[in-house]
Amino acid sequence: MNSPLMQVAVGLGCDRGTPLATLQQALDEALALADARLGDVAAAASIDLKADEPGLLALAAQHGWTLTFYTPEQLAAVPVPNPSETVRKYTGSPSVSEAAALLSAAWVAGQALPVTALLVEKHKYRGADGRNATVSLARCHGFPP
């Protein structure tokens, strides 16, 4: 599936205080599941509640990404395959990583994208530190206009 033209958008969610190493491992695993590379990442996003999260900011800085942060209302408006009432309870949206990946991919593609754009749905990783990270990947290309 990997090609020189592959572009993916990364949606990121995590516990408060999740370290960079845990986020990086979750990202590496999700990219491997999609047969994608770091160089394929065209966009990255999360929820605005995480705009000050040191691990997310460090991950973005390490890879030269500008993170986009969406409001809970923006994320909640995106249909996703794995909504969570627990996530809704804490964030106001039933999805962070899947919805953020789809919104970011749509921005890159210049059009709204279907749920089928998700290459990796809600990949969960619990680090040795006990912190949880969730990564979703959506493809940004290959859709009819």
From TrEMBL:
CobE/GbiG C-terminal domain location: 9-138
TM regions (residue ranges): none
Gene3D superfamilies: CobE/GbiG C-terminal domain (3.30.420.180)
The organism's place on the tree of life at top rank: Bacteria
InterPro entries to which the protein is assigned, alphabetical: CbiG_hydrolase, CobE/GbiG_C, CobE/GbiG_C_sf
Official protein name in the record: Cobalamin biosynthesis protein
Provenance organism: Polaromonas jejuensis
